[in-house]
Design brief:
This protein has helices at residues 4-24, 28-65. The chain is mainly alpha-helical.
Length: 66
């Protein structure tokens, strides 16, 4: 299991690494791989946000009810 700080930073690393690969490397394959890496990072961030949002809203509703 990964430590929480590493787990939370990984999608940002994917996005930045993908953008760097697209911009700094000259082959078409590096561009395609960088694009896939960036899209994967954004997808992971989006899925995490959607998964965590209902739990946060539920906690806020419980807190306000008290």
């Amino acid at each position: 299991m990964l430590p929480k700080p590493v787990y939370e930073v990984l999608p940002y690393f994917y996005v930045c690494g993908g953008i760097a690969a697209m911009l700094l490397l000259d082959s078409i394959m590096s561009f395609v791989c960088g694009l896939l890496m960036s899209v994967t990072g954004v997808l992971v961030l989006w899925l995490r946000r959607n998964h965590r949002q209902p739990a946060r809203l539920l906690l806020e509703q419980e807190w306000q009810a008290e």
